[in-house]
Input
Amino acid sequence: MATHLITGGAGFIGSHLADYLLGRGERVIVIDNLSTGRFSNIEHLEGRSGFECVIDDVRNEHLLDELIRRADRVFHLAASVGVRLIIERQTESLINNILGTERVLRSASRYRKSVLITSTSEVYGKSQKPVFSESDDRIMGPTDKARWGYASSKATDEFLALAHYQESKLPVVVVRLFNTVGPRQTGRYGMVIPNFVAQALKAQPLSVFGDGTQTRCFAHVHDVVPALVELMNRPAAYGKVFNIGSNEEISINQLAERVIQKAGSNSAITYVPYEAAYPPGFEDMERRVPDLRRIGDVIGYRPRKTLDDILADVVEEQRRHLQAEPNAGAAG
Ligand SMILES: NC(=O)c1ccc[n+]([C@@H]2O[C@H](COP(=O)([O-])OP(=O)(O)OC[C@H]3O[C@@H](n4cnc5c(N)ncnc54)[C@H](O)[C@@H]3O)[C@@H](O)[C@H]2O)c1
Output
């Protein structure tokens, strides 16, 4: 039985990872400052044997060092997540993402603990390739457009992690998560599926940004979480970067229609120009499809859950929330 430290463990993905590891009889320590995470995500784990939760910040160096000393492995998920949050709180988000990762890697290096770093498909930037492969060139926008700060902070995290591997063979795995969705994801920071589902269940119009022809691929968190654990089990994964996601592509217009249908709603669709939702000059990516061959070769990963499975789970969760609290927003 190993001890796994999950930074950001009260967040959406981190709390599912905690459930998964505890379900396999492992020990879990969560550290989370509850900036975007919620205690309710892990409340059901309180008092469970093998589970410990510390509400604090990963930039609290001494505490983090002690937790990493006690752990066998570190899953580093704590971050200021998503383009919208980075735009709204630029300095705090950049520092959080870069300094948090530096501290995690420094302590992991001191105690020689394996670390998984969660990066993002955003690091591919404006690349127009039909499918993104891990060794592709990245195409970034200018530094005076804050939206590129998220991708750049995560790319810096990747460089730091890989430098530790190259210089001292610290066992690190870098994953680039593509859109990951499922129960507990909050719509507060602009994530499209929880927002669409909340609007559909309340019979409000679904707000599509831009013209809705942009496409995305959505992976179920229940497919993503086991892949994180499996990668950490494979020394062949150390020092490498892996895309994780789904390659089932759908346009945002089709997604809106699918959500309306799955929620049994009669909502309309409204179009919100990017200028109204984001600062001037905001750019969105037309497509973002992962090449999954590398992770397929190393751990045999392939997404099992479909978009319909995802929507069924999110609709079911939000329906329950609405019945319990009829005036609540999108799952948080
Ligand atoms: N969900 C996705 O589609 C997606 C896509 C790409 C990358 N990622 C990455 O996956 C990771 C998890 O994302 P998520 O979707 O679960 O988001 P989330 O916001 O639910 O989780 C992040 C957690 O980190 C915590 N946190 C932030 N800063 C912290 C700090 N300094 N100290 C302690 N805790 C801190 C937050 O409170 C939150 O619980 C992030 O690193 C994110 O960048 C997620």
The longest strand covers residues 114-120. The chain is about 40% helix and 15% strand. Residues 7-8, 10-14, 31-37, 57-59, 77-79, 81, 96, 100, 118, 120, 177, 179-180 surround nicotinamide-adenine-dinucleotide (CB under 6 Å). The mean pLDDT is 94.
